[in-house]
Amino acid sequence: MFKWLEKNLPKVVLAPAVGLISWFVYGFILWTLYISFTNSKILPKYELWGFGQYTKLWASRKWLIAVDNLLIFTALFLIFCIVIGIILAIFLDQKIRAEGVLRTIYLYPMALSFIVTGTAWKWILNPTLGLQKLFIDMGFENFTFDWLVNREMAIYTIVIAGVWQSAGFIMALFLAGLRSIEDEIVKAAKIDGANLFTVYWKILIPMMRPVFFTSFVVLVHISIKSYDLIVALTQGGPGISTTMPALYMTQTAFHKSQVGLSAASAMMMFMAVAAVIIPYLYSELRRENVS
Amino acid sequence: MKKILIALIVFALAPNFSLAGPKIEVLHWWTSGGEAAALKVLKDDFAANGGEWMDMPVTGGGGDAANVTLKARIVSGDPPSASQIKGPTIQEYDQEGVVAPYNIDAVAQAEGWDNLLDPMIAAVHKCQNNSGPYCAAPVNIHRIDWLWANKSVFDSNGISVPTTWDELNAAAEKLKAAGIIPFAHGGQAWQDATVFEAVALGIGGNNYYKNCYVKLDENCLRSDTTVKVFDQMRKLQSYTDEGSPGRDWNVATGMVIEGKAGFQIMGDWAKGEFTAAGKTPGVDYYCASTPSNNGYLYNVDSFIFYKTNDPDKQAGQKLLAKLMMGKNFQKVFNLYKGSIPARLDVPMDEFDSCAKTSNADIKTAGAKGGLVPSFAHGMAQGNTMKAALQDVITEHFNSSMSSKDAANALADSVLANM
Amino acid sequence: MSANISATSYKQLEQKSKLKNMLLRWFLYFVLILFASYFIFPLYVMIVTSLKTMPEIRQGNLITWPSQLNFKPWAVAWGGRGYGAGDTFLRPYFWNSIKMVVPAVVASTFIGAMTGYVLTKWRFKGDSWIFLFLLFGCFIPFQAILLPMARTLGVLGISNSILGLVVVHTVYGIPFTTLFFRNYYVSIPNELIKAARIDGAGFFKIFFKILLPISAPIIVVTVIWQFTQIWNDFLFGSTFSFGEAAPIQVALNNMVLSSTSVKEYNVDMASAIIAGFPTLIVYVLAGKYFIRGLTSGAVKG
Amino acid sequence: MITLKVQDLSKNFGSTEVLKKINLEIEEGNFLVLLGPSGCGKSTLLNIIAGLETIDEGTVFIDDYNVSEVEPKDRNIAMVFQSYALYPSMNVKENMVFGLKQSKTSKEKIEEQLKKVSSFLHVDELLNRKPSQLSGGQRQRVAIGRALVREPRIFLFDEPLSNLDAKLRVEMRREIKKLHQTLKTTVVYVTHDQTEAMSLGTNIAIMNHGVIQQYDTPENIYNKPNNTFVADFIGSPSMNLINGQLAKEANNVSFIPEGSNQSGKVSLNNYNFVKSPQESGNDIYFGIRPEHIHYKKTNDTDFEVNLRADLKEYVGHEQIITFNYYSQEILGKFPSTVKIETGQEMKLFFDLSQISVFDKKTNKRI
User: Fold this and answer.
1) Does D132 touch chain A (CB under 8 A)?
2) Is the pTM higher than 0.90?
3) Which of B167, D134, D217, D252 could be cross-linked to D138 through a Cys-Cys bond (beta carbons 3.0 to 4.6 Å apart)?
């Protein structure tokens, strides 16, 4: 017995984490899967009902809008966070005066929840209260910035606020990545006559692969879960134009008494996430094991 | 390290001590201003009767956040003693078996609630398809179809309170020409729906409203009348300002109070904002019903009482139900809240003119068949159908969707969720 | 690359590069400050608003400095108005949050460190799959699992308790803490472990005496991350706790999102800043160590 | 022609002085080795020559032009790093031509250079591999190749061999030597390894605490160390520095080992003093390398002494013996074929033509 324990101690230590995640993640996914096949309304019911919720889901305009929005949001959110993050990290890496202050400024939004900053953002983006009014008051009479209340553009304001919250963290990741690179590489490039742009673009950024990986994981996770952001800024409006899956899921389950339908939407989310994330995670892990 | 960990766990596990006696845990979202003050009256009453009140406020989204908490509590097998639930949703919870055995029915029978409430209102609070024992208690009756207007704005533009939708449109055009935002509106789904149901009742009439939004008749929903209702919605939308989408309702009310905007269509809780700003009805502002043929959209706030095996909590439920329907609470609470008492025998002399109008109108409406439940506030339909209607209404209001398409979309959405 | 560059051309090169460097630096600072203003703007608006009186907020625009500093909103947000009903203020909830955050951060960090340790230093067949299995937990939208979670907590008898929240936050912290520690420990040479084993140290001794003492950088990163996530959580807090036991974010929400009241934006903003204060302080004070910790391995894939 | 000149160069990092008034000159085609223990400032000096570090005081000239403020890429130099600093995301070919591409060299020229250098260094087969797929020696070749293709005026090497294993190190050392012989390009080479320095350099600058201790040919460094630091640093085992006093009687100058009571007097009459000593009784070090202590007489001037062998270290072709010399430990180095028993006295001969004498106070050669 003791011998067995000694031999398997690492696995035994791993067991609580694996056990907890098995139940709290995978167990719950299975539960959700089951519920998605029932006709649960206001509360979960356990009689099987079939694939009805899925047909209903994909017939729902709101869900289709939510999926579209998620794709738009995730793509823009990823691109902007990473681009801004990289730019800020590179610039901060140039022996900047007051680096500490600037870094803190870029990083602090990560510390605040959107319940806190949502109101401020709502003001800033609102045409009759915020930036637009500010510029008009300053004499720029034709200045318009009404994305928040524009059905077509509102999703982009969510990107603006989302990027605001997360780009600093990506900056931190890249800055850390840059700092952990041997400076001999930079010296070699300098002697080779590469200018700053070339040094970063051709040499350092290609070396940041692991950072891209971490950023991807962090950002996709934020984007899939983005709920507070939407509730604080638009509550899915104007109309239903900024609905996102997490909001849809919450609303259908809790405010619209369609627990079954919500479970179906959750399953679609899980599957989409799995389809995107697992191959990526897997290929990255394999690369790592090979090298 | 380990010792700290253990200490922390023990610390987190430390139980909350409490004494025996009537006990109640109430889930609600009345946390501010008048509502909270009103609720305090109830809490104090409850304490005076030896009870222990465990407050459980969760605000946000007009009860949306509270809904999450409620369901989590029910699923966890430990529902609160009472929560703010109203209309057909009461029946839905009953059908899930979380309300029986109707602990408060005995109180209702002893107090004679059947005689104290309008039969229609009473039925809402009876479980087993509105005809069984009481399982919920009403606290008030809100009227939804109110028009709130800034008197000085109306006066200085030569506008009197409109009695038809055409008059209202004309007034709005006048204000627009004068450079004032005619219609103060918050573009959130529930607010869009609030306006919509007032328009539907006014333009379509009482029977149209009942057919379409109570009975959910498909032909009615696809009818030309619905198209006309959507046309009027489109007009109203053109009277809003560009900052409207996403705006909170009370911000919109503030615009009327400050004279930035002409009028707002909102339930009678808007009065609280006027009162808080020190304004008097008839002097500073108008409160009038939106144009309709003796219509009255009602919305009753009530508390549902869940199944519990704890005798202390059962005692608490009974005590709370009794106090909630008490004459004093019904009066004080509604003075604060802007609504009128659900209980019929509460004297109205302390209420203001708006509440008095409401109290008189509800009787006329009842007699003339215009007393209809609000669907936007979950009185006519359960949450699923409410959402199905709301989604189409808000999408139409915030896009360039044609009225005809909207009417069909409305019918389709209803059918899809039948 | 000719070998004979004349003196004048060296001189020209020198001046050209000096000018170029100067322009580049100006551009650098310009961009950095531009972004800094984008990042600081909302906080500035919040602070300014929290110091204004309500009439001033209604009349002015959002960036003007208050004509007179008004600290009353801060007092109200923290300590209330002094009358009974509907007087939600933050002071009592602060402690609730601490009671929830501290054990959850400690527990999730500890578990993450252990799993990270096993996954890198006691490798076995399929350990990559286990890691993948744990990591996928990052991507669960929490709204989707509230109901089964409620049931689980109910069965365990810890729904509506701080302990329940501690458990929830610990569990959903594990994927992230594991990710951090695993990536850190990967960069620590295996020889260290081998040496310790030859010296007779066992599984736990190696962890506690060898690895943990050199884990400070990654512990800082993990603690900051977890502290922020848990402190800022509203969803679990509002779902699995209530009333006087609620964490500060729920109280803040109750203050800011009250359904019917005259909005006191200055108090709202002051409360928002107060509720965000601990995390803000953590970032300001520990930000340096955060970057250092990340540098020391958290970002290595 | 002087290819590189460093004049009065100083450099501080914060309050620590890393380089103090360094002066150096190197003739075209020479191989300069900067040798010293870690932290002596040799790498900083190299970086300053490369233009990778700024100068606090002083000037750097390349071909008589002041390049102190010139960008590294315009200094006409190439550098090989300790970690090789190959760009991990590029393959060997891309790594090697990167610099040429930056200077907008024509495609034909690039191809030509690449071909020449890669065949010269035998890396033609590796051109499409990534650095991570190369062995240490291969990486080293590529790093050198990257420097070679640019045909610079000066090659800078920053401890290029220290990441290699012993065998490979010797091999690569020889290759670098060959390379220098073939190309005749000026080289500045930083190392902490004296064997490397001795075998490669035409000139060696020994540095310590930011100061050049001696700048000379390898032979002079070995035979005539300027001070005790150099004497001690060069040679393995290091030079024996025996405590004692200087004695002068009439025209005879001699060394009296500490604790010998005049009896062990060693004549210094044949020693080439920097400046003839004037007085007696000064504390001095008598320096003699272990390899200059013989087991049989080779010179008439050899000093004969009987000493007890305390310790024997066998290292293959030779053995290192520790002797007790008036209670001071001194080492001698002998072929392994000589039979020596520990604990026994044996007759030894100090080769007085090879000694160094240092003042104990200043540590300088006298």
Assistant:
1) yes
2) no
3) D134
